[in-house]
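Could you help me review a protein record that somebody else here produced? Here is the record exactly as it was handed to me:
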Amino acid sequence: MATGAVQFPPSNIVLPGSRLLPTAPFPDPHSTPSSFPPPSTSPRSIVDDWVFLFNNLLSGEHASITKLFFKESCWRDLLCMTWDFHTLQGPEQILRFIQSSPQGGQLTSVSLDDSSAHKFPQASGFGSLKAVQTFLKIETSTGRGEGLVRLVSDTNDGGRWKALTLFTTLKELKGYEENIRSRRPRGTESSLEDRGRNWKDRLVAQQNFEGGRQPIVLILGAGQGGLTVAARLKQLGLETLIIDRNPRVGDNWRNRYHQLVLHDSVWYDHMPYLNFPPNWPVFTPKDKLADWFEYYAGVLELNVWTNTTLETSEWSESTRQWTVTLAREKDGKKENRTLHPRHVILATGHSGEPYFPSRIAGIDDFRGDLLIHSSQFTTPRGKSKGKKAVVVGCCNSGHDIARDYYDHGYDVTMVQRSSTLVLTSDTLSEVTMKGLYAEDGPPVEDADIVNMSIPNPIAKRLHIQATSEMMRRDSTLLHGLTAAGFAVDSGPDGAGLYMKYLSRGGGYYIDVGASQLIVDKKIKIKQGHDVKSIKARSLVLADGSELEADEIVFATGYQNMRETARKVFGDELAESVHDVWGFDDEGETRGMWRRSGHPGFWFFGGNLALCRFYSRLLALQIKAIEVGLTRG
């Protein structure tokens, strides 16, 4: 049961080199007219007037900029003005962006998208403000896109309707549209070279890259990142090969801890071209998701080589291609293949290699039953009566593993080194996703436009408001946690879970049951101290206290994805690419889904929703390079 206002301290830890994203200011909410929209106008006419002026701005009438944007406004552009991601704040920065973009930018015009009722101009709340929101159709010199604008009345400028947020994103390239719907294959294709081969024969030849065929793109990793971007590339006609060291597609989820269930809802997690069926559970068990990945790869005819590793790689600046050697085991036989892709995508997970504190004194002296990283944990062993388990780390994996130990009868202690943001899954869905990613919500790709249309500096302000409400709803649980000695925080500047995820990739727990066990002291907490050393049957903390342990699991997170690149491709490449994750100076995510700093090399990862959305944008960037619209 919720109580009154709840205050928990912020946690402003960010990744090295990243910035603590500033919170964007909002216009004064009292400047909104009392009658909204004014009776003399309509949302449609408000949008029409703004679109007319914005198209004039694109045509060179730069003096109209102050009529179009609030001083607190943000424009987020993904590949429509340049071949990169940008967030611009305020009319002056927006105007400089337009003037400095090649030939004034690729974006040529915008128009109202009235293709469905939920896209049509409508009055809506936006934080503490009242706005008119509408979807937009985008036209660029090379493609078409989608967008969304939120207009607010400026009573300090005669009630003129100005953009507080503008979002533009590329969806397709002219002349290189996806092979879907009216462009789908007939299924009866054949040629003289087929010599009687049917669809299955051709598919096998395609997936084995027979006859000297070469992939244009090589993807490392057959998780949600590799599969979604491969699906997008396929529909753009780009030959792509995914490799994975595991025996089966989906093993990256199958091999995780036994009780794992996704913490995001089904409506948020759909994959491109193929939604989960209507009877799919709200929260997906990991083995069910693994089987879906395998099904997805088969239905979409993706080229996947399992039991395959990258042995060597070399980039040629002169030929603009890679030479890679792959070691593959197929049908019990081992073979090496040398391929020459023009692009390599590292899609092994945005978190990179497991972070395991191997330099802890005495770690080799442990004589208990188990000492591992959470990525290696599957399930507690049998005969657990009287056994003691210590889990170091208090985010999603740490909580799930601690609960699994408790359910198996262990005496469990969690070591919490710093504070954790905790929210219940029901509250998170109710406050942040209701009406958007929900049973009665819009199509998921339209929901993505609404979600991604809020530039991160403004999104942070909205998340501060939402987090305050969520913590109020969950206050009984959260106060119970603090009473049990568990440190709770509210995220960067109080902006909650999503901003913490984008800032540092972790530091939170979406509660599905473990928190109440902590409140009830069925799972014990040792808070505020790092691990100093390990003995034969115990773990010693920095304050000198000692915890007996038969099993120790370090749920201590993962390294930056750049370190995975170093391990696989070597120091030279790792030093040439940007850091991955966290925010750049404009508030966009560093290094991910966009140019990495090394030609022909890309990072791709994130949760299922981020992979669904950004897979299209990465595929479009590669296609644009391949057809000569931009240099790689």
The mean pLDDT is 93. The longest strand covers residues 160-173.
